[in-house]
């Protein structure tokens, strides 16, 4: 192992372990520091974050529409390794996963509760659903797509290791600044991945534990139940780390997506079907007409309450996707060999976005239906126990015990797929880009991800988890922009007839 790789591995392990130990020893102190630093960054750099993520989306769309869209991610005669269905389920499971279940109803209702004092209730409901769709739509997948496309292009087209640093070193060789920048980019990517996935572990454990507590007729998941769920999770994600990526991830992803697909179909068919289909269609229309302009909004001229809401939600989400960007990017790149740039962009951006619009239109629409026409129990619950909202919603429908079990199962599977994917990617980074990292290094990273997840569980708050994730991800926005610059330069070196040869 080269000295640079050894130093990267040693430094990364030391920093991640230190953060995990800090979070376990002093969770309140860690959250306080994260909240203070993130708050200052959001106040001073909101414009830069929104401009950057909107720019990534525009870049991906423009590239797909250009003559470079026919270039394959690999040799001109290469073809995809995975079927389209498996490819889409794997990238969606890695990219969104448990968050969809956690926020399915809770996020639209949280926005509705905040917006309702300022707008008539129907307009507030429409705005709440739009903002939720914006957070989970094209801008999120534009971040993922930009990172994944650059890594896939350089790895499969130019034969570089599958590392964030590879584009810099491929284009600029052994220049000292390129080596330093490459080392730093890999390190920042590792930190962002580890902290981002650790936060998702905590969120998933919160929801699974609360679902189990609800089945047992409890009034809130206690520390013992949280520990049992966490230990069970660790026991379940270890075996997939010991098998091939395709056989492990594809099966788990297909199962998780199958369960969630059945859930949303059940909600639409058993709930107020006409109302929910209208909600899905209206949410789609509002998103289609307003998403682009909203990507440049910073709410500069609004009162402090609105500015705080924008920072706590939109900015936090954009940075959250940046935290997952290197992890999802490398993983999606790994499973996308042989696809054209156009096929890649259309699949990565539009299919998951359409699924999210359908998902939130159904679950969010049903929650808004209850708030507008019911007693508002769900809306009130978002202020006290956000992880229980989806389960309480399901109690309003037939077979609630079955749908609750299905939700718990899907959430658990999504956490497992996220940890397995992340440990795989971190193993690659720790092995100089080896596409098949050793079982030992994957197990090491699986253990550290568990340590971080447990540290964030001890924070006891979803809001606290979001702050820590944002702190870990902020520096990576600069690296993503530099990656796109490298991709533009490399594409300029393609032969003029490359699009014809790869068609």
Walk me through what this model shows:
By secondary structure, the protein is mainly α. The protein is built from 21 helices and no strands. It has helices at residues 3-25, 27-65, 84-95, 98-103, 106-115, 121-135, 138-158, 166-172, 176-215, 223-237, 245-270, 273-294, 304-334, 341-373, 377-381, 389-394, 400-429, 439-459, 462-473, 476-491, 498-501. It is globular, with a radius of gyration of 22 Å. It starts with a helix and ends with a helix.
Which features does this protein show?
single chain; 503 residues; mainly alpha; 0% strand; globular
The coarse silhouette is globular
What sequence of helices (H) and strands (E) makes up the elements?
A: HHHHHHHHHHHHHHHHHHHHH
Q: Give the number of helices.
A: 21
* Euclidean distance between termini CA atoms: 39 Å
Percentage beta strand? under 5%
- What portion of residues is helical? over 70%
Task: Quickly give the structural class.
Answer: mainly alpha
Low-pLDDT segments: 498-503
Average pLDDT taken over every residue: 85
**Number of DSSP-assigned strands:** 0
């Amino acid at each position: 192992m080269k000295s640079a790789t050894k130093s990267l591995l040693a430094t990364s392990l030391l920093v991640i372990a230190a953060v995990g130990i800090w979070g376990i020893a002093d969770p309140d102190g860690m959250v306080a520091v994260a909240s203070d630093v993130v708050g200052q960054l959001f106040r001073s750099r909101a414009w830069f974050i929104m401009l950057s993520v909107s720019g990534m989306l525009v870049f991906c769309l423009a590239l797909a529409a250009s003559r470079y869209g026919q270039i394959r991610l690999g040799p001109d005669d290469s073809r995809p390794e995975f079927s389209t269905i498996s490819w889409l389920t794997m990238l969606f499971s890695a990219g969104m996963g448990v968050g969809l279940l956690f926020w399915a109803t809770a996020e639209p209702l949280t926005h509705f509760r905040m917006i309702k004092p300022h707008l008539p209730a129907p307009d507030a409901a429409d705005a709440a659903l739009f903002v939720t769709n914006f957070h989970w739509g094209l801008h999120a997948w534009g971040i993922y797509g930009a990172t994944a496309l650059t890594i896939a292009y350089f790895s499969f087209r130019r034969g570089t290791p599958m590392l964030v640093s590879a584009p810099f070193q491929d284009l600029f060789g052994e220049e000292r600044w390129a080596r330093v920048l490459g080392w730093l980019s890999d390190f920042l990517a590792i930190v962002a991945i580890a902290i981002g996935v650790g936060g998702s572990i905590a969120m998933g454990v919160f929801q699974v534990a609360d679902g189990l507590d609800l089945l047992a007729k409890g009034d809130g998941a206690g520390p013992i139940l949280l520990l049992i769920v966490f230990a069970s999770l660790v026991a379940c994600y270890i075996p997939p780390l010991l098998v091939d990526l395709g056989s492990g991830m594809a099966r788990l992803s297909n199962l998780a997506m199958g369960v969630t697909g059945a859930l949303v179909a059940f909600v639409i068919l058993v709930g107020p079907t006409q109302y929910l289909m209208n909600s899905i269609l209206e949410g789609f229309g509002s998103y289609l007409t307003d998403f682009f302009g909203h990507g440049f909004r910073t709410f500069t001229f609004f009162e402090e309450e609105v500015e705080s809401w924008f920072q706590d939600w939109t900015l936090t989400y954009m940075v959250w996707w940046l935290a997952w960007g290197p992890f999802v990017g490398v993983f999606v790149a790994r499973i996308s060999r042989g696809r054209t740039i156009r096929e890649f962009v259309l699949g990565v951006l539009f299919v998951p976005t359409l699924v999210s619009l359908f998902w939130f239109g159904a679950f969010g629409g049903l929650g808004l239906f209850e708030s507008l026409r019911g007693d508002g129990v769900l809306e009130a619950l978002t202020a006290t126990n956000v992880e229980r909202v989806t389960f309480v919603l399901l109690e309003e429908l037939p077979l609630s015990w079955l749908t609750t079990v299905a939700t718990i199962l899907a959430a658990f599977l999504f956490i497992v797929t996220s940890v397995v994917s992340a440990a795989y990617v971190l193993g690659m980074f720790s092995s100089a880009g080896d596409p098949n990292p050793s079982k030992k290094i994957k197990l090491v990273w699986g253990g550290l991800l568990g340590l971080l997840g447990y540290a964030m569980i001890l924070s006891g708050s979803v809001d606290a988890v979001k702050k820590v994730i944002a702190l870990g991800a902020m520096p990576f926005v600069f690296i993503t922009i530099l990656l796109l610059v490298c991709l533009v330069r490399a594409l300029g070196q393609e032969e003029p007839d490359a699009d014809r040869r790869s068609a």
